């Protein structure tokens, strides 16, 4: 096992595309690091440079204590798993697993031992004599993982390995990957465009945009303390609600937008140094859907929360929770960062209906709520959790990285 350290790494493709721009990233020994970002942001390029499949235009990559800039892939002691895993169709599962080790002239008993261990770990023992055509998609992906595991490499590099699987299988494979990582503890760099996958798998997550690192942190910190509008809008599902608002002083300080005024608690100012300098000015306000509750079904924990009367336009019942979609009488925020974050390249996400001068917001409330389309309800929210961004730079106000 080994750490992987990228220092000022650049990639400029022939033709001039700067796919990766001054990337600094330290992946700890044994860490599960996820690279996430919209399609084309440079995730695969970064991974392929670590693997040695792509030249580095500038900077340095070290695996363990060794600078590997000029080391061919086979000498880097890493194993890759791709979205399009190519298994050998004429070989059995067992032969597929053993093939790479045979090429390396490993003694037969050692090969057998490693293949058996990997098969056991991946639940493939009963399929060892089958050929890939007789396996399900998920089983095939397990064989592809198995081929990486038997190598016992210093690091796993995975590029969207679950993208070809259906939603249910992806969830169960995510769980298997988590278990596998706990068991083996091998340094892993995992690329995905799916922020849910990133949040559930990563010890830490590195968010990229246009080849530039935005933020590296634990999933919880990315969610609670996004460094800018882009990270705020990209991480979290449903996405954060945004509106251009004004900080005004009446009794205390409030944030005002459309016909709504929300008081800002003193604790928020304590948490966000510099926020006080925006009083009397415009900010972009962000509210996570999960920070709302339906007043009618909220428990005592919502005492003292601010109230937002709304009309439910659409409700999506998810079993344990309900998404309530409602309109805010203010135009959608058209900052370049919120627009970029909304473009996840994911076809599954339906386009928002055109609502003209109004913004469509989402509240995710407890399923005890009786909210139905067309109904007026009172939403409540914990104003301590409001997010504030500078309307010009898009940077989170009061975030330590921006001070
Ligand atoms: N072989 C290549 N030649 C030229 N441009 C490339 C090549 N591969 C990728 N790119 C460009 O580099 C950028 C980053 O691509 P990529 O790393 O594949 O992004 P991601 O994996 O995040 O979707 C994109 O603009 C893409 O078009
Ligand atoms: Mg890619």
From TrEMBL:
What GO MF annotations does this protein's record show? ATP binding
Q: Where is the ABC transporter domain?
A: 4-235
The UniProt keywords, alphabetically, are: ATP-binding, Nucleotide-binding, Transport
Which residue stretches, if any, does this entry annotate as coiled coil?
none
Task: Please list which residues make up the signal peptide.
Answer: none
Gene3D superfamilies registered for this protein in UniProt:
2.40.50.100, Nucleic acid-binding proteins, P-loop containing nucleotide triphosphate hydrolases
Q: What PROSITE patterns does the record point to? A: ABC_TRANSPORTER_1 (PS00211), ABC_TRANSPORTER_2 (PS50893)
Claim: Cytoplasm is one of the keywords in the record? no
Q: Which Pfam families match?
A: ABC_tran (PF00005), OB_MalK (PF17912)
Look up keyword Oxidoreductase and say if it applies: no
Q: Which NCBIfam families match?
A: PRK11650.1
Alphabetical list of PANTHER family matching this protein: MALTODEXTRIN IMPORT ATP-BINDING PROTEIN MSMX, OSMOPROTECTIVE COMPOUNDS UPTAKE ATP-BINDING PROTEIN GGTA
Protein name per its UniProtKB record? ABC transporter ATP-binding protein
Organism of this sequence: Nonomuraea spiralis
